[in-house]
Specification:
There is one protein chain. This protein has 607 residues and is mainly beta. The chain is built from 3 helices and 30 strands. The strands form 4 sheets. The chain has a 22-stranded antiparallel beta barrel. A two-stranded antiparallel sheet has the order 1-2. The longest helix has 9 residues. The protein is globular.
Length: 607
């Protein structure tokens, strides 16, 4: 969500679409888990992330944040806003660019990105009514590719890119509009209505099938390795315009009601989203290490299709303060989804190649509680029904992903904050959303794939405190998560066995943040992060090879900040100060590294 609005380009018909708001311009991030997340949706399994954009300031004021670093990285965030009587306004822009940290064989092309993002907010408030209009527009050019490296080439130069990817590039733009009206209906009822509309268009032009060359070269095929190196000519290399346009629109109405010890949220949402896929393919020959254009083929079949979903949702959530110690949350959500796909046999869309559709409706209940055991200790537990729509490519006989999700834990608040929460999710039919960037375990790059019954269970641990040593404060925060994610029942149809690990779920994740904060405004922080290896496909733990999994990774970041005065802060930052790089992914087409050591400096100025 962004400001409470569904922000994925097509969360029902194409939940794997490649768009994420510019994090640089976000004011804060809200995370909601357990039964209360059923107020939102459509995905209700793991949690809700709501990114809150910069609010309209109470007084006329502005801010500028700027950072410049290696590889010509540059971030700029500038905003100005204020209020005049009942009216308020905000204008903001985020500008990001980089040349990238990879080098392409036989090419001087960049491997970075250029992003421009603009936001305007207009607000009006009276004693009982308010209106907020928000408009956002962004555009991006990323010199990115699906093509990774063979393991041997990764060991020699992990920041290399093959010349076959020299012309790969993504262009996209996004625009979003929302209008929120809020009014008090008596002393105990507040109504909030939000209408929203989003468009996202993208064309990712890139090599198709490069993974076959990488896999063959990993297996010792010298011809495949020569094609990757550019020393062997190749005919008929296909470069697809992954060209898609998305629209989403809807109306969300919620009533917040205070009834004594009960805080109720009652409402509903009508939503529609759609995707138009029209993907021509250009063919090139590689001759003497150079790419030579041959022809273009207009799209048919799966490269020429429309998908749409209509969804109607209702919810009722009650936060009940039973007594001073016990808070009880009761939630119920209803999702009704109708989706379809039309696929065409000709570029002009005069001949229908195929049509499919799917409908599903689910009641999603949940309950959770917190109970205070005195001033410092609190216990908590909850259970709720999880749901995830299949997308517009689902067939009539396919069911959406559903699960039963349990959690229980304990918290301590004192000189330390300590939290331990165990979780257990039991999936009736675990599904994967398929895309070219993240193919499903059956190799599909669109639609969804059902892996059958599965469980995801684990433990989350957090601890934080602050020590004072003379005039220096030492804040300390640590987090550890253990996760066991596996098939829970043999699935002979797909070839999975009980105990097969699920894809893309690390077993161990750890982070540690420690600071040195001085009385005169010079603050220093170190952040250590560890992520375990992951299966790239289901079942890599049972008969898989090293090519079926990523590598574990430890990264250390440093940042030093100095408050020049009340309105100006200077900082110096080192990402991955130990320059540790590993294979963090093998999808879609070969081994990929994390970012190398990168230094940058910047400032934050408010006025």
């Amino acid at each position: 969500l962004e400001d409470g609005v569904l922000i994925a380009p097509a969360p029902y018909s194409n939940p794997a679409a490649y768009y994420f708001p510019t994090a640089l311009r976000m004011h804060s991030v809200e995370v909601l888990k357990g039964a209360p997340l059923l107020r939102h949706g459509p995905q209700t399994t793991g949690g809700v992330v709501n990114m809150v954009s910069t609010p309209i300031p109470d007084d006329n004021s502005g801010s500028i944040g700027f950072r410049y670093g290696q590889h010509n990285e540059m971030d700029l965030l500038a905003s100005w806003g204020g209020r005049n009587g009942a009216f308020g306004y905000l204008v903001e822009t985020a500008q990001r660019r980089s040349d990238g940290f990879k080098d392409i064989d036989r090419s001087s092309n960049d491997t970075g990105y250029d992003i421009a993002d603009y936001v305007v907010k207009l607000g009006w408030e009276s004693e009982r009514h308010s209106l907020l209009f928000k408009a956002q527009y962004s555009e991006e050019t990323s010199d990115e590719t699906y093509l990774g490296l063979t393991d041997a080439d990764f060991r020699r130069d992990r920041n290399r890119r093959y010349g076959l990817s020299s012309i790969d590039v993504m262009d996209n733009d996004h625009q979003g509009y929302s209008l929120t009206y809020q009014t008090g209906l008596g002393d105990n009822v507040t109504m909030t209505a939000t209408g929203y509309y989003n468009e996202f268009a993208r064309d990712w032009f890139k090599l198709s099938g490069g993974g076959n060359l990488v896999n063959a070269a990993n297996g010792g095929d010298l011809q495949a390795q020569g094609i990757l190196d550019g020393s062997i000519d190749a005919d008929g290399l296909s470069y697809k315009h992954n060209n898609r346009e998305y629209e989403s629109r809807g109306l969300d109405i919620n009533f917040d009601v205070e009834l004594g010890s009960h805080q109720l949220a009652l409402g509903g949402r009508a939503h529609r989203d759609e995707m138009d896929r029209f993907q021509p393919v250009e063919y090139f020959d590689q001759i003497n290490g150079e790419l030579v254009f041959v022809e273009i083929k207009e799209p048919t079949g799966s490269d020429n299709r429309l998908e749409q979903a209509d969804a109607l949702s209702f919810w009722a959530v009650d936060s009940w303060q039973v007594n001073d110690a016990l808070n009880l949350n009761l939630a119920l959500r209803y999702e009704d989804v109708e989706s379809w796909r039309k696929q065409y046999a000709d570029p002009g869309r005069d001949v229908l190649d195929s049509r499919r559709g799917n409908s599903s409706s689910e009641w999603l209940p949940g309950a959770s509680f917190t109970y205070d055991l005195g001033d410092n200790w609190q216990v908590l537990a909850g259970v709720h029904r999880g749901f995830s729509p299949l997308g517009g490519g689902a067939r009539r006989n396919e069911d959406p992903e559903t699960s039963t999700n349990w959690e229980a834990g304990v918290r301590y608040r004192g000189s330390w904050f300590v939290e331990a929460i165990g979780f257990y999710s039991d999936f009736d039919n675990k599904t994967e959303n398929c895309s070219n960037a993240s193919p499903c375990s059956d190799g599909a790059t669109s639609g969804s794939f059902n892996t059958g019954e599965a469980t995801i269970a684990g433990l989350e641990l957090q601890a934080g405190t602050s020590f004072d040593v003379g005039s220096v404060a030492i804040p300390l925060d640590a987090m550890y998560t253990y996760t066991e994610a596996e098939i829970s029942r043999d699935n002979s149809e797909e070839g999975f066995s009980k105990g097969d690990r699920l894809a893309s779920v690390p077993e161990n994740v750890f982070s540690l943040r420690m600071g040195l904060e001085t009385a005169f405004g010079w603050n220093n922080y170190v952040v250590a992060k560890y992520i375990d290896e992951m299966c790239m496909d289901v079942g890599c733990n049972n008969g898989g090879t090293k090519f079926d999994r990523s590598e574990d990774l430890f990264v250390l970041d440093l940042i030093s900040r100095f408050d020049l005065n009340e309105s100006m802060t200077l900082y110096l930052k080192f990402d991955n100060v130990l320059d540790e790089q590993a294979i963090v992914s093998r999808q879609p087409d070969g081994a990929r590294p994390n970012k190398p050591r990168t230094a940058s400096l910047g400032f934050d100025w408010t006025f």
